[in-house]
Design goal:
This protein is α+β, with helices and mostly antiparallel strands. It has 9 helices and 14 strands. The structure holds biotinyl-5-AMP (BT5).
Length: 327
């Protein structure tokens, strides 16, 4: 069995070439024999790639499979990043968060990413479900091992929200809005959700799992009927399909950029970026916190990610978790 890395090296060469690349050029660039190049071509074809081979001219990529493919995602990543050092792509799993948690407990390196084509028990927050049909969306979980105290770990939710918003903008030109703390909306409809989980001791984080679900090509009929908020997908908004592997690579690159900046400069720049995607400033919001409902103008987020709500008596209330709706 050929390694994914070997396959993605070859794929990168084929992707970068406009036309045919000779077997000799490929073997030179990859530093392997022509027989080894041929074996990789065979493996890529088995994975669904259409690769034309002409004895006089070499090889040419003519078709990419529509399935989620680790080698295609890795080939789309800038080299040297931390996020995506290991990419695990599954056809089906209960929840990528559960799978990533298991890998992290077993010592998976920081930057490990688990994706699944479909989830049979996709998790939302507070025991809610995330609709996860196959063949259309992204369900992705990233293992991070930040050296921050546990109370700062929720800051990473903001980091992932900014990365998803950025990836949507770059890949589609659409302008997403972030709703505190973990929803991404297009118009008033939810297009992505985040579920971050953590393993920690009293004073240190062992690891954080950033769980991200993006509705990429989901059709109207695939949404459950009993949604809490109206929902949409990138394809429904654009009127065309969006390549999942390419979107995943753009998202992982954005996560990598945000995380490396977070490690150097801390939360402040993340908070600034997050604020630019948030349209709730000054608007009346209600926040359901447990059984209590609070209402007031949205006054931003605090240095640690807490939502700031101006109460009728003028006090600023800090809220660490809850469900927000803009009135
Ligand atoms: C979330 O929860 O928004 C977090 C969703 C996180 C999903 C990812 S997928 C990869 C990783 N692995 C997992 O198992 N989970 C993460 P919450 O704010 O609680 O929203 C859940 C609510 O959104 C549900 O109760 C539904 O009303 C609605 N919903 C369910 N599926 C949806 C979908 N695909 N698109 C939009 N809304 C949905």
């Amino acid at each position: 069995m050929l390694s994914r890395l070997a396959q993605s090296d070859l794929l990168r060469q084929l992707e970068q070439a406009d036309s045919f690349v000779s077997g000799e050029q490929l073997s030179g660039r990859l530093g392997v024999s022509r027989t080894a190049v041929w074996k990789r071509i065979v493996a890529l074809r088995a994975a669904g790639y259409g690769i034309e081979a002409l004895p006089s001219r070499g090889y040419r990529l003519v078709r990419r499979p529509d399935r989620l493919a680790a080698e295609q995602i890795v080939a789309g990543l800038p080299p040297g990043g931390l996020v995506g050092q290991r990419v695990v792509c599954l056809d089906e799993t209960g929840s990528t968060n559960v799978e990533a948690f298991r890998l992290a407990e077993g010592g998976a390196v920081e930057g490990t990413v688990v994706l699944a084509d479909r989830q049979t028990a996709g998790k939302g927050r507070l025991g809610r479900r995330w609709a996860s049909p196959g063949g259309v969306n992204l369900y992705l979980s990233l293992v991070l091992r930040p050296t921050v105290p546990p109370y700062e770990a929720p800051q990473l939710t903001f980091l992932s929200a900014v990365a998803v918003a950025r990836a949507i903008e770059v890949e589609t030109g659409l302008r997403p809005v972030i709703k505190w703390p973990n929803d991404l909306l297009l118009g008033r409809c939810k297009v992505a959700g985040l579920l971050n989980e953590m393993s920690a001791e009293t004073d240190r984080v062992n690891f954080v799992i950033l769980g991200i679900g993006v509705n990429v090509n989901m059709t109207r009929e695939q949404f459950p009927e009993d949604l809490r908020t109206p929902a949409t997908s990138l394809a429904l908004e654009l009127g065309r399909q969006v390549g999942r592997n390419r979107f995943a690579a753009t998202l992982l690159a954005a996560l990598d950029g945000e995380y490396s900046r977070f490690r150097v400069d801390g939360f402040a720049p993340v908070r600034d970026d997050w604020s630019r995607y948030c349209n709730a400033f000054g608007r009346q919001v209600t926040v359901a916190v447990g059984r209590q409902t609070l209402q007031g103008p949205f006054a931003g987020i605090d240095h640690d990610g807490a939502l700031l709500l101006r109460l009728p008596d003028g006090r600023l209330e800090r809220i660490l978790s809850g469900d927000v709706s803009v009135v």
